[in-house]
Amino acid sequence: MSLSSQLPALQIVVPMLTAPIVMLLRGGSLAWAAAATSSVMAFCIALALTLGVQELGVLSYAMGGWPAPFGIELRIDAFNALLLLVTTGASSVALLSGRVSLARDIPEGQQPLFYAAWMIALAGLSGIAATGDAFNVFVFMEISSLAGYILVAAGPDRRALPATIKYLIMGTIGATFYLIGVGLVYMMTGTLNFADMEARLADVTTQKPILVAAGFITVGLALKAAVFPLHMWLPNAYRFAPHIVTAFMAACTTKVALYVLLRFDFVVFQGNVSGHMAQYAGFLAPLAILGILVGSAVAVVEPHLKRLLAYSSVAQIGYILLGASFGDTAGLTAALVHMFNHALAKGGLFLVLAAFALQANGLRLADIAGLAQRMPLVSAAFLVLGASLVGIPGTAGFVSKWLLLSSAMQQGPLGIVAAVVVVLSSLAAVFYIWKIVERLYFGEPVANGGAESPASARGFEAPAMLLLGIWVVALANIYFGLFPGFAVGLSESAATALVSHLP
Amino acid sequence: MEFLGLYNYWVFIALLMIGFYAVIAKPNLMKKLLGLSIFQAGVFLLYITMDKIDGGTAPIVQAGVADQVFSNPLPQVLILTAIVVGISTIALGLAVVVRIFEAYGTIEDDEIQQADRSE
């Protein structure tokens, strides 16, 4: 067997085995270098897998040589490939550019442990995205969540701790709900493999346990994905986590949970539970719309930048769900493209905040006033990324919002309501991004309070790697705005595959 | 009696609800974690119950026995994994609670919120 056929397993194994090595290394720099290398390797594997998927369609890997459905199957299709790219890409960019910022947030002695937790989180997230086994998803979900709690708790402020315990409790309830749902489906089908579940559910005559299972799984994963109104853990977890961790988590954790939700709903339930599409759309679409409205409204009045962007994330999760709740190829394509584009925009924005935090005294609106004079390049990147979040033509955000609007227009009167909501929330986004830009460019500069940062002492506006990372992401936003073919192509084949399960 | 015949499932629901109530209603973080633990224990019971067959034994092939009834071992293996996950979660939660106590001097949720608000 050649190495390339082992790639799906390596995707998980590489970061997972790096974790203990990183933990044993002494000194932050060495641990950082090892973690970043492993993360970049994982990204390369994800790229190779994406190329393989574009060529072959679906890559299946039997773990330990046990064929599916008896063994654990790793199954990579276009949807998984897209998600793997987002996860490993976000981790790589965040790690590569975050050295200085992380060194400031985390004591030197704890850094190897911190990077080990990061690697485990990456392994877990990649595992969820790669596996085709429902129980395996639960295990990887808990692996990534437990490591994620550690990453959040590493925040320098003591308020990170209550935020972590809240995240931990809600996350565990979500995972346990998912476990109950999987248990009920297993009771009725005797299998844990997604594809096999679909086939065997067709023979199940009593639908009630399946319906209950669908409810538990949907609510459990909605908790993990911070779907409104189950998003209460998200703003504080994002705010008090180390800035670079926020950039990593904002780009991928909620999206991975949404992926499992869509995979379960479409592959397992849609074809087998009668009337599931109506229940699913009727449950998720209102939540999506409320999430968009409430998230945007709170973001408009929120004075703390990280919480502001966190609430904006709640709204963006709403967009993804809204597109998915249309249940046709166009809507799902829009949802998946938005997953990718939002990860690009929001990950980049949180990196910019990490750069601001190195120079300003805090991340409240008042703290960043006039910062553009000292940090012209970072602020310019903020403009580009903000434009992408709003959805200005020429940026990645525009592509997905355009797809979302045009698919909403095909949905009749309810679609018009959805379109109006999307437009309103985009206006709100213009408002809250402008609010920041105005302070940044036209605010009266605040005195730096004597807290001279190491970067400014050397005359740079931000550490070179961070600046580079921010601009790579910003240019990627423009690139995928002008040439959206890659993300749209992958999303379209993923959406077609999902829709093919509809009855 | 059919209604009580499935009493394991009633216990599962009861444990689930007791745990859930404690997580939501108790302000003490230790009690919240205890509730979480009971909540998860309920799910373990669900999995263990579903694989049990009356008179079933371990699935071992024995010479001369052809029609041995055995319990399904897979859910037991699954729940063994879930128990490990549960233990890790509680352990991590307890570690965070210890650090909260060091940072705040209390583990009551409302007092922590008050301390945060006055900051």
Written account of the structure:
The complex is a heterodimer of chains A (503) and B (119). With 503 residues, chain A is mainly α. Chain A is 76% helix and 2% strand. Chain A contains 21 helices and two strands. Chain A has a two-stranded antiparallel sheet with strand order 1-2. The two termini of chain A are 38 Å apart. With 119 residues, chain B is an all-alpha fold. Chain B has helices at residues 2-5, 7-25, 29-51, 74-104, 109-117. In chain B, helix 2 packs antiparallel against helix 3 (29-51) and helix 3 runs antiparallel to helix 4 (74-104). Chain B starts with a helix and ends with a helix. The relative contact order of chain B is 0.12. Classes of the chains: A mainly alpha (503), B mainly alpha (119). The A-B interface holds A 135, 138-139, 142, 146, 149-150, 153, 158-159, 161-162, 164-165, 168-169, 172-173, 175-176, 179-180, 183, 186-187 and B 20, 23, 29, 32-33, 36, 39-40, 43, 46-47, 50, 75, 78, 81-82, 85, 88-89, 92-93, 96-97, 99-100, 103-104, 109, 112-113, 116, 119.
Write the layout of secondary structure elements.
The complex is a heterodimer of chains A (503) and B (119).
Chain A: H1 7-24, H2 28-56, E1 59-62, E2 73-76, H3 78-97, H4 99-105, H5 111-130, H6 134-153, H7 160-189, H8 194-201, H9 208-224, H10 234-240, H11 243-270, H12 276-301, H13 305-325, H14 329-359, H15 371-374, H16 376-390, H17 396-409, H18 413-442, H19 454-457, H20 464-482, H21 485-499
Antiparallel strand pairs in A: 1-2
Helix pairs in contact in A: 1-2, 1-5, 2-3, 2-5, 3-5, 3-11, 3-14, 3-20, 3-21, 5-6, 6-7, 6-11, 7-9, 7-10, 8-11, 9-11, 10-11, 10-13, 11-13, 11-14, 12-13, 12-18, 13-14, 13-18, 14-16, 14-17, 14-20, 14-21, 16-18, 16-20, 17-18, 17-20
Chain B: H1 2-5, H2 7-25, H3 29-51, H4 74-104, H5 109-117
Helix pairs in contact in B: 2-3, 3-4
